[in-house]
Amino acid sequence: MNVHNLGETNSVLHQFIAEIRDKDVQKDRLRFRKNIERIGSILGYEMSKDLSYRSKNVHTPFGTKEVSVPNDHLVLCSVLRAGIPLHYGLLNLFDGAENAFISAYRHHPDNDPEFEVIVRYFAAPDLNGKVLVLTDPMLATGKTLENVYRTLRSHGTPKKIHLVSVIGSQSGVDYVSAVFPESTNLCIAAIDHKLTAQGYIVPGIGDAGDLAFGVKL
User: Fold this and answer.
1) Pairwise CA distance, residues 48 & 35, whole Å
2) What's the chain's Rg over C-alpha atoms?
3) 60 within domain boundaries
């Protein structure tokens, strides 16, 4: 897997990451969602460098100019509910993409560290020959993305897979590197090195879904 860790290079991205981590700034849900959306657009721009392109003649009022435009048929697939702001950040750039959504959550039957990922809702177009972009803000253990990918296989075989996450753990990055095709690209804004026994990233940001939309029962 090709890993693009944007956190290794200084840019305005670091300001948005700092704000989504800050427990005081997190109290403003609107700002939190907007920052995730901004991060999604930055990650999408970086991801676009790995797409295929074609030449196109554009006619201006004064002449014709040959330009390169993306040539891939994209399907953006986000994990509900935390992935919605990140999804919109990508749609800001890839407004012609098809969309897929899947509801996946951790199930701790005995409130212990062991859990399974449950998929409840799934809607996606045909994936054959298309570029699949899987988005999940928090890449903790990597098991959610693995289960989502297994579910998506019923809708065809994409020609290329891109993973987009805001913050991940090193062990989660290692896990998806092992279970996804070798040609998969991961574009991520920051990688933290600690993961708790319950599968939460430290220092991380907390629960992205709760921070964006409110605490769930």
Assistant:
1) 20
2) 18
3) no
